[in-house]
Amino acid sequence: MSIIAILKEALLGSLSSMWTVVKIVVPLMIAIEIIKDLNMLEKIANFLKPLTRFLGTSKYSIIPLLSGLFFGLLYGAGIIIDSVNEGNMKKREVNLVIIFLASCHAIFEDTLLFTEIGANGWLILFSRLFAAFLVTFLASKTKYFKDDNVNMIEVKNETGAK
Amino acid sequence: MSITENTFKRGINKGAKTIVYIGKVLIPVYFLVTFLKYTPIMRYIADFFKPIMHIVGLPGEAAVPFVMGNMINLYAAIGALSALELTAKEITIISVMLCFSHSLFLETAICKKVGVSAWMIIVLRQTLAILSGIILNIII
């Protein structure tokens, strides 16, 4: 295969992949802004409150969980820092929420992107949500995450600096 | 608050910024992997990773998008994946694995920043990726 042919394949292929990404990311970014401006998270949060009992967390965990699930880990972590600074979230809860979000976050973007390149989106979504719930549930039952014990890594105050 | 013209402006603005960012990652990775495909290097990589990738039902060269996804981010993984030819089953398996474990440097740093153990998060995500790969290889 000639170098020109390889270059052509790389150029056309990468541009077509970019188009795939653009088609998903731009509408998604607009959708996210709409969700924020309509305060939809708060409305969904009320509805989903019972789920936090299963995860072993308080009602304060629901907005960080939803933000991370919808908008990504970075966004979820930002909300967690706010909650910690306001004294609403304790170390134990921060750990549980992060365990959940590390397993499953940005579900719309990731799922749509991989569906677009040929993966089974429902399987991706189900696997991630199932694993996140299971792992967080199990973690909340272990001694290590049972209560705010002293062995837990301190949530540093410096994290408040945004 | 309600939806205004600003809502859309912000969305399009963020979308455009994200696209530029993604392009800077995805396009070079796509070029790299396309070139690698036509060199013996890809054969070596594929042969080297074949025994490990076999456990999750993937060909050896699928190690490239997996490593790129973990070291860089999902856009790099998508660039690398698109340049390879995989079956629908293989794409689903590696997609789920990548969703569990990606952007390890950046995302572990975020977890650490809120006070969660970095090692716990890395071990958790790698375990989920490998287990999900093994299970999906059996059930689909």
Essential attributes:
heterodimer; A: 162 residues; mainly alpha; B: 140 residues; 7 helices; 81% helix; 0% strand
Helix percent of chain A reads over 70%
Number of strand segments of chain A:
0
Distance between the termini of chain A: 52 Å
What percent of residues of chain B are in strands?
A: under 5%
Topology pattern of chain B, helix = H, strand = E = HHHHHHH
Largest interface: A-B, 60 and 54 residues
Overall 3D shape of chain A: elongated
Oligomer: heterodimer
- Unreliable runs of chain A, pLDDT <50, ≥5 residues? 149-162
Number of helices of chain B: 7
Please give the number of β-strands of chain B: 0
Q: How many structural units, i.e. domains of chain A?
A: 1
**How far apart are the first and last residues' alpha carbons of chain B, in Å?**
45 Å
Task: Please state the CA-atom Rg of chain A, rounded to the nearest Å.
Answer: 19 Å
Largest sheet of chain B: none
Please tell me the overall pLDDT of chain A: 86
Structural category of chain A is mainly alpha
Protein described:
The complex is a heterodimer of chains A (162) and B (140). Chain A has 162 residues and is mainly α. Chain A has seven helices and no strands. Chain A has one domain (28-160). Chain A is elongated and about 65 Å long. Chain B has 140 residues and is an all-alpha fold. Chain B has one domain. Chain B has helices at residues 5-37, 40-55, 63-71, 74-83, 88-100, 104-113, 118-139. In chain B, helix 3 (63-71) runs antiparallel to helix 4 (74-83) and helix 6 crosses helix 7 (118-139). Chain B starts with a helix and ends with a helix. At the A-B interface, helix 1, helix 4, helix 5, helix 6 and helix 7 of A face helix 1, helix 4, helix 5, helix 6 and helix 7 of B.
